[in-house]
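A note from the maintainers: we've had questions about how concatenated examples are separated. There is no special marker in the raw files; a new sequence line simply starts the next protein. For clarity in this README we add a label.
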Amino acid sequence: MRAVRASLLVLALSVFFAHSQRVRAQAGGGKGAVVEVPMLFRGPTPAVEVLVNGEGPFLFAIDTGGGGQARVDSSLVERLKLKTVGQARAGDGSGTFTSLDVVELDTLSLGGAEFRKVRAVTRNYNASPALPHIDGILGFNLFADYLLTLDFPAKRVRLERGELPRADGAEVLSFESPRGIPVVELGVGGNKVKADLDTGNTVGGFVLPTALVEKLGTAGAPVVVGRARTVTSDVEIKQVRLKDAIRLGRFEFTEPTVVYPALGDVANVGSKVLGEFSLTFDQKNKSVRLKRSEPPKEAGPASAVQDLRGYPGRYGERTISAEGDALFLQRQGGPRLKMTPVGKDEFGLEIVPEARIRFVRDDVGKVVAINILNRAGEWEKAARDQP
């Protein structure tokens, strides 16, 4: 299984980023001024189109788990001839650091909002061939002067003036930001743990410290599901389902699947979970509001199993099986991975949402093969073994 891109852990940037000038809004700077743009996606990570120095549009992800104001891919640095103005230390929470070049953007425009003199670290952010090309990343601190709303269900990103209501511990939560990113309290079984709210984390919905997982009740043994690369580390990632519930404010997640380890003692809530919500961040008052629409009622297990009957079978080195209302993929000698539907005859993997498995049908509608996107970004075809 290909290495999983891990932007789950923070970029620790040097303090001189504070010298960047604050945002100037061109869409009206008064209270309640709104900039609203479509939310695009790079895998499960929210993204928007921006202009850099008046050129573009370029696709930038929004990473609430990213310190500083912005990051720029090395290809855009070359394209726009951006000059290096300094260096910054970058780390992932493991205690190891590396040095990255810093460039300065004269202007960065999102809808009608313009940010000036934005300093951004730079490196290659396109190491994964399975993900679309990205030109850069917008960090959490870029939006310090705004209410930032990431409305995943409506696929909208909004900037506005104002403040959130006082935190109530239910839908409006207080957060800390010792590393320039939002950290909230997460209930895991009978434990309380600090957790980053990290839209840049594509590894798992909940990433927990190993020491915490070992104290919890689990449903089955953990399995190795891949490797995660951070700016300074490469770690083996395991997955297990908990018997304990996880609580984020008033929202409860029963028997959740979690991955581990987290680098350090802080947990992480990624896009797979945050994508169920509309989130509004108020950095001035250090609070975040979570709104979640009630999911539509799903068909019962019997009808779901009926819909999946045509898929199970052996496809070369891989076996597809059904259990209840879910499909599972297992490569010979590898872990059993839950599949998630993304379209007609097309699935991702729960632990790797950007993965793609497509079922191929013959003229009479019978499934005869699968196509799987490999690490090189090419489709591999495997015919279904005949019974």
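[label: protein 2]
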Amino acid sequence: MTKNILLSATLLSLFCFSQKSFSQTKKDSSKISISGYADAYYAYYTDSVGDGNYQKFPSVSPRSNQFGLNCANFTIQYDAEKVRGVATLQFGDIPRSTWSGTFNNILEAHVGIKLCEKMWVDAGFFRTHFGTEGLFPKENICSSISVNTFMEPYFESGLRLNYMPNSKLTINLYALNGYNMYEDNNQKKSFGALVTYSLNDKINFGYSNYIGDDTPTGDTVTHNRIHNNLFVNFQLKKFKAQVGGDYCMQQNADIAFHNQQATMMSGVASLKFQCCKKDAVYGRFEYFNDPQGFMSGTYVDANNILSGLYLWGATLGFEYTPTSNTYIRLEGRQIQTDTAQEIFHWKNENTNQRMELMIHTGISF
């Protein structure tokens, strides 16, 4: 009897050990994680666009004199040895004002397969690979985004080849449906690249581009576009900086001579000073010049001349972080167009400048 009890106990122990080992192996080889992010705001603009309408260049905090929700994002991510995937749903004013009308609530959704030790291929819907700033307040020094970032793509769909030869260098190559598109508008495919390099944990820089022709089907004139972006992020003691610029060329896009090339130049520089552990002040300067209006659209100015947008802006703000995953920000901003481009309307008068005031609070988990 005693021998039977000991044998049963031994077998039970071996079974429990094998089950524990199997569970641990399974846990080590695959992982599912869930995360979220929410940002709420109040904003006020000196531009009369009508009740309930979005401001010009709508994205972050696009409604004036209202409390609102910029975003509520929920992400589920799966990582295994040879397969990975991510899906993020989004709600709020940012997806409503800037995202795809067809797939408004999809921030990203893609699946990847490991090709070799340092290379993956992913397919599906992606967040943009392009630009200096991120799209959400928590990703940037400032809460608002520059007009430069507003003009850049927000989302894309296609294939991504991801290669990390070492811990400092990352290379991403893209085959895409188009510029800021989930669904293709012609039979042509576009291409892009993002190369980032981390010098150390304080400095990283990169280059991104987009090459493609998104001329709608039926248009006999081609509009090949080459859009380039350079950026650098660095931190020096209590200072943090985010600097970058764009240069874009598009074929057959000149206002006066439609068969000539047009160009756009823009830049953004943000600086943050950490006053103490939880308090910081920050600022940003932005510049955007699209004389032919192939990205910003065209305007008839006060001199009855048709031109694209020329704009500069300055931002100043204060940030308080109660915890590492929360923030409260008070931010003021002024953007100003060329003197003759009175694209804003305030107190029954057209004007070339707009003031903004924003209060943001956000949490991520």
